[in-house]
Amino acid sequence: MGRHGWNSGARRWRLTALLGVGVAALALVLTLSTLPDGKGSTEGTTPDGAKPHGTPSVPAGKPDPELGWGFTHTKNSADEGEQPAIERAGKLLSATPMPQLQHLMGWGSDNPEPSPGAYDFEAMDRRIDFIRASGGTPVVTLCCAPDWMKGGEAGKDKIRWDQIEVAPVRAHYKDFAKLAAVVAKRYPDVRHFVVWNEFKGFWNSAEGRWDYEGYTELYNLVYKELKKVDEDIQVGGPYLVMDSLNPRQDEGASNELKGPWGSADQRVLDAFEYWNEKKAGADFVVVDGSSYTVDDELVPDEFKATDKLTAVGKWVREKSGGLPLWWAEYYVEPGDDDDDRDGWTEPHRLAVQASGMMAMAKGGATTGFYWNPQKKGTKCAGCLWRSTELADGGSELPMLGLVARFGKEFGPGTEYEKVAIAADDVPNVRVLADDKAVLVVNTLDREIDAKIDGKRFTMPGYGVKWLER
What we know:
The chain has 469 residues and is of the alpha/beta class. The chain contains ten helices and 18 strands. An eight-stranded parallel β-barrel has the order 1-2-3-4-7-11-12-13, surrounded by six helices. Strands 8-10-9 form a three-stranded antiparallel β-sheet. α5 links the parallel β3 and β4. α5 packs parallel to α6 and α6 packs parallel to α7. The longest helix is centred in the middle third of the chain and has 18 residues.
């Protein structure tokens, strides 16, 4: 997740995740020869990028802009590895189908258009095939852009993965929009598109603010091209990082959106309001962010800090006129010096994640994507399943159980209800309920005896419990 300013640097872990084909692929790129004509290699590409891939099943009727709770595929996912493990993961996900998001370039996808009109969707096809096979609702984030659209050279041998976070130059905005239309035609069962990711490359260094004019121009071109393909395609943005500052910090802090958790970065709010006013249209609105501040502070603590997600959601919903609210990413655990999020125990992580999801729901969100930090080894903090690179991989991990159950119980259209909580339990628990289920989180690292919704029970430290009503 990007910091508040482009020059302040994006998080190192994200850049690693962006390298969709990894270090091995980069080494391969560096060994490929450059063709004499300077156009680069087009071997392995096709001019038929817009030809529908596979046998897509396009749902009848207009798509719903509210999808519920799912996850994002990252660099490593369940489409590669040991075949039994891949099948195991697919079967696991098909048991509780969820929306699954895949990026166009990076995060497991190669350069989709290495040269103008020459397409390479092999990796993207594999991800879409997996989503289809596992019964998920496919969603595509239209980021990032081929090198030739951002000042680099064309050709499969010219890919610069270290430049992935660079935005297209204005002269190629229309080319990126046309690529978006090609993607929509290739995957007609993808009915939801998010335009770009975290304003990457749209930082105006000279003025110390976001280049919201440039992003909005790109967004509008993409929006119009997608609607030309099919008016019913659902399109949303702006996918801004809703950064916040420590309550003690005044410079750059918003007086409008603030709380015990801190204050929103006014530059982000300015960017949102410009897009909101100048957008050609939107079927839903997209943000991302963390419960902690830009300095990785959890204020007042890791559980109360999640109240930020509620406040941001309410603000966005009000400003957008009630558009369906999506969280493209959400984070509750700060990273270490290498930006790895593995400092908490899994019960602690699960409890704070549950609190974060509750907070987003209370803020009006009806769609959210958990960023799955999948690794290839046996250890993977916060992952949804054991790595499919392992012979016995593909089995469920605790986080998947939370995300899947949350989506099942609190999907779009849920009407939340108040819950009776014993007075002495109020400071120690977080609760969300509808007419059928109650989710309870123990915010303490010790066992408690709780009375919730008329039921008395014991909860372990950082326990997460579902009650039926």
